[in-house]
Amino acid sequence: MKYMLLLYSAPGAGPDPASPEGEAQMGRWFAVTEEMGKAGVLVSGDALQPETTATTLRVRDGETLLTDGPFAETKETLGGYYVIDVPDLDAATAWAEKMPLAPYGSVEVRAIQEFDQA
After folding, report:
1. Residue 94: predicted pLDDT
2. Dmax (CA) of the chain
3. CA atoms of 76 and 93, how far apart (whole Å)
């Protein structure tokens, strides 16, 4: 079964990427990504540009509306994701626990709905 690990944190949370702590954390991201690859569970994953680069599209009454930023006002924003292929939710949450932002952010674990398009 495929699961998406959605990685959220507040802007500015966690170590400064340019600091020694930030560089060490980046190493942990690379390590967990490599571990998932070697375990054969990694389907895909990417970091996202900051929320300030986001554009949200809505169509209301036939009119297309574009707004800057994420679609909802929240303290935490989506910073990246992984798609993994594992046997069950327990396995997915075990991988989610390994995410370096877990101590200061959150990881939403969501099963991917697959459709039979015969």
Report:
1. 96
2. 52
3. 20
Under 8 Å between Cβ of 108 and 5: yes
Residue indicated by tokens 């990685």: 7
Chain centroid to Cα 1, Å, comes to: 18
Residue with the two structure tokens 């327990």: 90
In order of their start, the domains of the chain are: 2-111 (3.30.70.1060)
Q: How far apart are CA 28 and CA 24, in angstroms?
A: 7
What's the predicted TM-score (pTM) here? 0.84
First to last CA, the chain: 19
Q: What is the pLDDT of residues 60-107, one digit of tens each?
A: 999 998 888 765 666 788 899 999 999 999 999 999 999 999 998 999
